[in-house]
Amino acid sequence: MSIEELQERQDAGDQVIAHGSTNEPFAEIPTSQLDSLLMRNKQWLLENKFEGANFVVYPGNNFDKAALEVISKYHYMGGMNQSGNVNTTGVNGFNPLVIPRTIGHDLEICKRAVRLAADHSQCTVLNFHNFDSKNTINVKKYGTLLSYIDQTSGIEAIDFTDLWEMRRTEP
């Protein structure tokens, strides 16, 4: 997506966050190189006024203890997906740098993630790449998903900033 398209998404209520600009999993990148990469990516987000600069998702869904130490210098919270299916998480608890996410590649899986989050008082993080990518639903289906979220009782759409604040406060 272009910067303008990303800014449009942010203006519409979506949160644009960091994603590694590499095809290598974070666990396989030397820590000094990872440090430079994350610093550059965060700086780009800040320079372009993206509000999600404190958050990151991991390319290749791969990280290790050393990577988490570097990541924690730049980001408060991060996420990975464990599969191409539904992942939910509690609003409170465990390492905020290891939040499961669901890749938004299938509308029905996205809807199921939303429904399960609503039914079980959970949180689901949906991740979308370029709407023309094979691993992301298209713009029309994205609109359908947003309508579904609006119509689903018991669900509140939040962004990573909201989740961070919820996890920081006592239940």
Describe this structure in words.
The chain is 40% helix and 11% strand. It contains 6 helices and 6 strands, in the order αβαβαβββαβαα. The chain has a 4-stranded parallel sheet. A two-stranded parallel sheet has the order 5-6. α4 runs parallel beside α5. The longest helix is centred in the first third of the chain and has 17 residues.
Which features does this protein show?
single chain, two-stranded parallel sheet, 40% helix, 171 residues, four-stranded parallel beta sheet, 6 strands, alpha/beta
How much helical structure, as a percent, in the residues?
Answer: 25-40%
Average pLDDT confidence is 85
**Total number of helical segments?**
6
Structural class: alpha/beta
Uncertain residue ranges: none
Sequence of secondary-structure elements: HEHEHEEEHEHH
In spatial order, strands of the major sheet run: 1-2-3-4
Distance between the termini: 37 Å
Strand residue percentage: 5-15%
Overall, the morphology is globular
- Main sheet summary: 4 strands, parallel
The Rg value, from CA coordinates, equals 16 Å
How many strand elements?
A: 6
